[in-house]
């Protein structure tokens, strides 16, 4: 494979998918009450609540089952309870909604800053990042998690601060990861011919979309990832980044 630029997924590619489900998500759900109490009334928290409230109203207007309105008026306890119920509902549905991702990232930032959280990176990743950097390749991240959350995982990782390797970050603000147009936009934004970009992900639909956009693609098959179906057989599959060295 001959390429100049690399775009990496996070979950199931450079980070165990279990880290998100077993560490990051429980951190939000278990710590939500205390976090709201500790930050209640702050301008930062108010801004994130406003995003959740706006999304909640859209969900209710669209008739989504289980959607919870977050009131502007009422006691602090009533508003906090609505926020908690809304977040629990969204996370149970594993939604990739910007307002939820932003709030999660806001909570995770606090956890990383205190040392309670550390990003978990596969041991085979950093040697390849070094090789790519030494050979002049540009590296980017494209994940469904918000850009701030991406920076926290690689910036406060158990392999040290890895942000120095990456030239940029993309989330679903550029488009859904299963749509070819998203990859076309990324190529335009970084000024690279799609045919010179390698995309690595564990998700076959993302791989197919990137391929449709003209990217070179590799599937990451890690422990705990969703099983690959027969449609994956036409693509290169790796179980370790050592196979790209």
Kindly describe this structure.
This protein is α/β, with parallel strands linked by helices and 245 residues long. The protein is built from 8 helices and 6 strands, in the order E-H-H-H-H-H-E-H-E-H-E-H-E-E. The chain is globular, with a radius of gyration of 19 Å. It starts with a strand and ends in a 7-residue tail after the last strand.
Compute the average pLDDT: 96
Query: pLDDT under 50 segments (min length 5)?
Result: none
Q: How much helical structure, as a percent, in the residues?
A: 40-55%
Estimated share of beta-strand residues: 5-15%
Over all CA atoms, what is the radius of gyration? 19 Å
Number of helices: 8
Report, as a whole number of angstroms, the end-to-end distance.
Answer: 11 Å
């Amino acid at each position: 494979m001959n390429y100049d630029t690399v775009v990496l997924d996070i979950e199931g590619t450079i980070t165990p998918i279990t880290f998100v489900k077993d560490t990051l998500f429980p951190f939000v759900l278990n710590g939500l009450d205390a976090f709201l109490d500790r930050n209640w009334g702050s301008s930062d928290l108010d801004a994130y609540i406003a995003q959740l409230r706006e999304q909640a109203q859209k969900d209710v207007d669209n008739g989504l089952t289980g959607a919870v309105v977050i009131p502007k008026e009422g006691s602090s306890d009533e508003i906090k309870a609505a926020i908690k119920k809304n977040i629990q509902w969204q996370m149970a549905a594993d939604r990739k909604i910007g307002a939820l991702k932003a709030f999660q990232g806001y909570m995770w930032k606090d956890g990383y800053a205190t040392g309670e959280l550390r990003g978990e990176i596969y041991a085979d990743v950093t040697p390849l990042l070094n090789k790519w950097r030494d050979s002049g390749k540009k590296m980017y991240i494209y994940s469904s998690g918000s850009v701030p959350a991406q920076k926290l995982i690689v910036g406060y990782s158990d392999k040290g601060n890895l942000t120095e390797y990456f030239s940029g970050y993309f989330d679903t603000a550029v488009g859904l990861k299963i749509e070819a147009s998203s990859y076309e936009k990324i190529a335009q934004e970084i000024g690279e011919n799609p045919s010179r970009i390698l995309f690595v992900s564990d998700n076959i639909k993302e791989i197919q979309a990137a391929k449709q956009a003209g990217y070179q693609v590799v599937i990451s098959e890690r422990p705990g990832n969703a099983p690959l179906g027969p449609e994956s057989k036409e693509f290169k599959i790796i179980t370790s980044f050592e196979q790209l060295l």
